[in-house]
């Protein structure tokens, strides 16, 4: 791995193959993680997920929009430690509305078509995470960073 | 795998891909039986469709909302309706559609066909499930045929199929459906033949009607029936059917037409023809190596096989298995019309008379012994009516479900329950009761003097208000819920009215406009005779929908009269023994009245509300039954007095809403119900008032406590606690 393009390809492949991400929020300093179905924009600048507004994660985000998300390729085998790729993203989440929402929804639903009824429900919020940095771990301990905001 | 295979090219290796029905017909054609020209749309087409569109996963989400064992039949029906609507709203991807259109166009461009299900599990030796999946008769042209393929696919998930999911091995990840497209054989006489009578192994049975087989298979027409000796091939008996109509192809589907006089009189089948059908059934049995159920038709004296499957019976299970009863609810339209007449003209008036008669007799003057006899008598009357309710009213309620399916097939709405809006606004008794309650509340709201007097507990009010309260009590005092009369105590009733008066007046009337518009749009899709038929059907559905609520009210009145006699007994036992008798069962009250030494046992200490400290429910899942979002304090209804404590803006949480308790609904901000389904009273009334509603939350009453802050998400069918 020598270039940021290679790293971008690793991320794109990972996001294409994985359906779920771990989302970290916090409530007055108390970390809180959730499993969410996610989507990623082609340029990797944004990650997206949906949640109803009555959830704890949504409530936490209202207090502090800073999040971390983990996407990985583990398969619950010993060899994961060598083979799995894990990408940690940090950034800020924000609920998107109207036209922006439709655009992001398209990205999200192309990955999770069966979530349409859920994501389109009026009680459901679509959140866009603007990624600041990716931390990508491969082959156990090889770690690279990709800074989306110079 | 090919998406389409003509019948003559079906070989032994593709049985699973073409399904049992197509496979059996292909083998019979090989053997020289006369079989209509046909083609199989293989299960590969179904699989590609659900995979490419993501429909497979959506079916999975729908079916995994809750544990199947927790689902009531109504919920199964709802799930099936929603899945069917997913199919109707999901176009076939271009790549598949092009192939289907090409093959169908080549084979059946200008001939009418039957589009039949041919599920891989169906009709095999082990499992034969006639009628769980759908068939469409007399479909014309490529567009219509391709559209009906999708409907047959959807019927893989029919409510009947879901009930038998274990026997069928139904699984959203692996199950699939093949379709058989068969040139229609418009016979002059048609029927079924059982090579072996399921009730007598020495006999065969043949049933026949004039015209298409459809009229017999769906139960509309009563057939002629012959029994034959299997060994000697001689006719043992012949019983003529009603023979007044026959089913014929019409411009769209099929229709009934009157028989000509000659057909009504003459023999439907000659003895020779009966022998012909018998011979066919026996040859089929011989060929497949087990008794067969054969559908056949005579066209210009030539005998065709339409389908053949091994005979198995659906029930087979224990007496506990009520599924055959459920399937029997699917009545034909003619049957429902007859039932409607019986209910409207006989049963409902009789129920009203019964309640009135019961109100006349004076209980106070009866000796204890006689009161006991009176309670027994009233209990018996109530039980009898309850039996009628199960036998006639529940099957009649099926009328509006049947309509729902036709509506969805016609309109393909995005909301599978849109048809309910078309049925509402039918002047239900419960709505009338709520209107009168509203009237009383308005009087309090507009008269501050009256309100203050009532608030101070001054119940000695005068004038119109008093008259109206009395009239209301007169009409509705007998309503019972959970074996208690709801409006029993005047003080509690007044408190409830004050609560109603404390909230702003409601604005109504939005639904009726919707209903008129929907009705117009629906009927516009039909012309001529079909339109008249649909108007009649809609009228039947509206009656079915209205009576679904009203029958409960009338039954509630009879139960109320029964309970009055029980309360009188409880009062006497209390007066005599000094021990509380409120919770005595009917049986114990009767015992206590007959035996002057009977002393009620001390009631078990009321179940303490158990609240575990380390375990807390946060989000419960049910079915979305009324769109909207509401947040408020929960009011869990466990007994009739809880209803009277209801505060405006609370969330109504209950086991099952009964029309006799729906008067609190206008006060509530949202509804959560343990019992599930879109067509239950809670869902219907929530829709009527536009309230967020979630039904089918199995643990609702145990896990939610009065006072808990809850959010009702009626869009997604979830309830958030805390």
Task: Give a verbal description of the structure.
The complex is a heterodimer of chains A (150) and B (722). With 150 residues, chain A is an alpha+beta fold. Chain A has helices at residues 4-17, 56-63, 80-83, 98-111, 116-120; strands spanning 20-27, 30-40, 46-52, 66-72, 86-95, 124-138, 142-147. A six-stranded antiparallel barrel of chain A has the order 1-2-3-6-5-4. In chain A, a hairpin with a 2-residue loop joins strand 1 and strand 2 (30-40). Chain B is an alpha+beta fold and 722 residues long. Chain B folds into five domains: 4-183, ATP-grasp fold, A domain (Dna Ligase, domain 1, 2-Layer Sandwich); 189-312, D-amino Acid Aminotransferase, Chain A, domain 1 (2-Layer Sandwich), CATH 3.30.470.20; 333-425 and 512-594, no CATH class; 429-501, no CATH class; 619-721, Glucose Oxidase, domain 1, CATH 3.50.30.10. The radius of gyration of chain B is 30 Å and the shape is globular. Residues 605-609 of chain B have low confidence and may be disordered. Chain A binds chain B through residues 52, 54-55, 113-114, 116-118, 121-124, and chain B through 53-55, 57-58, 60-61, 619, 627, 629, 711, 713, 715-716, 718, 720.
* Cα distance spanning the termini of chain A: 20 Å
**What's the gyration radius of chain A in Å?**
15 Å
Amount of beta strand of chain B: 15-25%
What is the count of β-strands of chain B? 23
CATH architecture of chain A: Roll
Shape of chain B: globular
Q: Estimate the strand proportion of chain A.
A: 35-45%
Fraction of residues in helix of chain B: 40-55%
Determine the CATH topology of the largest domain in chain B: Dna Ligase, domain 1
């Amino acid at each position: 791995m020598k270039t940021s393009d290679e790293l971008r390809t690793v991320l794109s492949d990972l996001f294409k193959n994985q359906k779920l991400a771990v989302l970290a929020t916090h409530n007055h300093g108390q970390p809180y993680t959730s499993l969410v179905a996610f989507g990623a924009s082609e340029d990797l600048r944004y990650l997206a997920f949906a949640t109803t507004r009555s959830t704890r994660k949504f409530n936490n985000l209202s207090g502090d929009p800073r999040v971390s998300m983990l996407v990985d390729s583990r398969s619950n085998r010993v060899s994961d430690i060598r083979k799995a790729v894990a990408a940690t993203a940090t950034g800020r989440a924000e609920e998107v509305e109207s036209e922006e929402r439709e655009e992001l929804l398209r990205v999200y639903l192309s990955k999770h078509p069966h979530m349409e009824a859920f994501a389109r429900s009026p009680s459901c919020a679509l959140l866009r995470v603007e990624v600041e940095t990716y931390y990508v771990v491969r082959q156990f301990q090889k770690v690279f960073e990709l800074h989306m905001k110079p | 795998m090919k998406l389409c295979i003509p019948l003559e090219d079906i070989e032994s290796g593709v049985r699973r891909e073409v399904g049992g029905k197509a496979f059996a017909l292909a083998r019979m054609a090989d053997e020289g039986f006369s079989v209509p020209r046909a083609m199989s749309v293989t299960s590969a087409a179904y699989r590609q469709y659900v995979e490419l569109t993501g429909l497979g996963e959506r079916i999975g989400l729908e079916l995994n909302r809750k544990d199947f064992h927790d689902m009531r039949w109504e919920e199964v029906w709802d799930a099936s309706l929603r899945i069917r609507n997913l199919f109707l709203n999901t176009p076939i991807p271009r790549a598949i559609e092009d192939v289907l259109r090409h093959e169908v166009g080549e084979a059946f461009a200008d001939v009418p066909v039957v589009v039949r299900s041919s599920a891989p599990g169906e009709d095999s030796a082990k499992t034969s499930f006639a009628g769980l999946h759908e068939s469409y008769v007399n479909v014309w042209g490529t567009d219509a045929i391709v559209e009906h393929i999708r409907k047959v696919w959807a019927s893989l998930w029919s409510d009947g199929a879901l009930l038998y999911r274990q026997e069928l091995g139904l699984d959203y990840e692996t199950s699939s459906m093949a379709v058989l497209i068969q040139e229609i054989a418009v016979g002059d006489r048609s029927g079924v033949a059982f090579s072996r009578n399921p009730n007598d192994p020495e006999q065969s049975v043949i049933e026949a009607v004039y015209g298409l087989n459809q009229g017999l298979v769906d139960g509309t027409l009563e057939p002629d029936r012959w029994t034959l000796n299997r060994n000697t091939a001689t006719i043992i008996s012949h019983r003529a059917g009603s023979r007044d109509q026959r089913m014929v192809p019409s411009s769209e589907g099929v229709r009934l037409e009157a028989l000509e006089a000659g057909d009504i009189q003459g023999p439907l089948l000659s003895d020779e023809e009966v022998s012909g059908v018998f011979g066919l059934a026996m040859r089929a049995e011989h060929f497949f190596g087990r008794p067969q159920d054969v559908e056949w038709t005579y066209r210009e004296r030539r005998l065709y096989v339409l389908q053949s499957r091994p005979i198995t019976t659906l029930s087979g299970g224990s007496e506990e298995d009520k599924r055959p009863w459920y399937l029997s609810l699917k009545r034909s339209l003619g049957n429902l019309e007859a039932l409607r007449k019986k209910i409207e003209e006989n049963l409902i008036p009789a129920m009203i008379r019964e309640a009135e008669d019961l109100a006349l007799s004076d209980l106070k003057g009866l000796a204890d012994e006689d009161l006991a006899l009176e309670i027994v008598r009233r209990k018996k009357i109530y039980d009898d009516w309850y039996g009628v309710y199960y036998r006639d009213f529940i099957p009649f309620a099926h009328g509006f479900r049947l309509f729902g399916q036709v509506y969805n097939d016609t309109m393909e709405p995005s909301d599978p329950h849109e048809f309910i809006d078309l049925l509402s606004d039918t002047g239900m008794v419960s709505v009338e009761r709520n209107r009168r309650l509203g009237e009383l509340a308005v009087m309090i709201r507009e008269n501050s003097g009256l309100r203050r007097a009532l608030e101070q507990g001054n119940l000695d009010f005068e004038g119109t208000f008093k008259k109206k309260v009395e009239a209301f009590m007169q009409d509705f005092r007998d309503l019972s819920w959970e074996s208690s009369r709801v409006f029993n105590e005047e003080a509690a009733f007044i408190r409830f009215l004050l609560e109603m008066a404390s909230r702003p007046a409601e604005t109504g009337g939005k639904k009726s406009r919707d209903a008129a518009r929907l009705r117009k749009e629906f009927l516009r899709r039909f012309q001529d005779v079909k339109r008249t038929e649909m108007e009649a059907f809609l009228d039947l559905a509206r009656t079915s929908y209205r009576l679904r609520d009203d029958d409960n009210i009338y039954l509630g009145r009879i139960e109320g009269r029964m309970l009055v006699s029980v309360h009188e007994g409880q009062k006497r036992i209390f007066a005599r023994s000094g021990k509380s008798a409120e919770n005595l069962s009917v049986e114990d009250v009767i015992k206590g009245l007959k035996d002057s030494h009977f002393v009620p046992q001390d009631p078990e200490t009321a179940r303490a509300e158990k609240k575990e400290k380390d375990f807390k429910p946060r989000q419960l899942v049910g079915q979305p039954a009324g769109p909207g979002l509401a947040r408020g304090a929960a009011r869990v209804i466990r007994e009739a007095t809880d209803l009277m404590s209801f505060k405006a803006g609370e969330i109504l949480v209950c086991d099952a809403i009964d029309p006799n308790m729906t008067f609190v609904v206008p006060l509530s901000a949202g509804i959560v119900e343990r019992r599930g389904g879109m067509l239950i009273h809670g869902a219907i009334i929530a829709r009527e008032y536009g309230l967020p509603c979630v039904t089918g939350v199995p643990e609702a009453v145990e896990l939610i406590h009065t006072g808990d802050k809850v959010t009702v998400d009626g869009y997604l069918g979830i309830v958030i606690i805390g």
